[in-house]
Amino acid sequence: MKTLITGATGFLGTHLVKTLLNEGREVRCLVRRTSSKSSLERLGVELVCGDLLDKDSLKRSLKGASVIYHLGGEVYSSNVEDYYKTNVQGTQNLLETCLDNGAGKFLFFSSIAAMGPNRDKKKPLTEDDICRPISPYGISKNECEKFIVYFSQKYKLPSLIIRPPVVYGPGLNGSSRFLGLLRIIRKGKVIIPGKGDHRISLCYIANLIKGTLLAERKVDLTVRRYILTDKRSYAYNEIIDTIMKETGVEPSKIYVPQSVIRGVIGCMQFARKAFRLSPSVSLARLKEGVCSWDCDISKARKDLGYNPETGIEEGFKTTIRWCQENNL
Prior knowledge:
Radius of gyration: 20 Å
Number of domains: 2
CATH superfamily of the largest domain: NAD(P)-binding Rossmann-like Domain
Number of helices: 12
């Protein structure tokens, strides 16, 4: 059984490749010509150079593949259009090419950003909630999900959608939000929205990979969605305090009232409308950063037997040690 992975050179993709190889799976990876391929070459996987926007390369990569893990896409661009072009159009291209090549399973890594933050802080996000994404990235992931549902229902393509939160663990790339938070704390000052009691779900990389492989067994003609996170969510203060404990750094905490932050966001939105400016990725990230992202994994527990073992105490210790060893 040959498995194709897009986005294999990224943080999640690299861990997935290693896990599948350890299970004896035959793995092929679609990689951009400009991507660093040395780690994948050392693993001995089959590489196909191409792009999600190049259907010829997609045909080559899909030949003989019965399982597709689609992780490739834009995550951190400052250009709003990149999210649509790479994520939405790229996913549509891959789905259309899958139909011509008889793929057996299509597994898509979406994001909790596709759902949007908690509207009711007393109720964690579930797979059944109405999606209200607030960022270009989240909107693009939500559009991708819609395409997957459409293709699955119309063309009987067995599909599954994984929704992880911010993922952490050894192997983080330089643009990760977790690493960005580490660097902010190291500088000695950290801004905390409100009282810092809003809750955020995270996922240690090993938890996510285990849950994903459990979910693969459930793929059938009914599109399934699963939120995969750590065992529980964390208060923002708990995240900061755990990092402080593991790094030995004690930054000044600057608590900013939520009303002040909402006022700043409102002024930025008014200015963009008044001057007819294009949508702002930085403004969207600011909005996401002050929201609650508390998720419920009851469905994954019940359907998959998902039991995430690693929490932030152990996970942060391992991740921070790796970052220190690699001078990040």
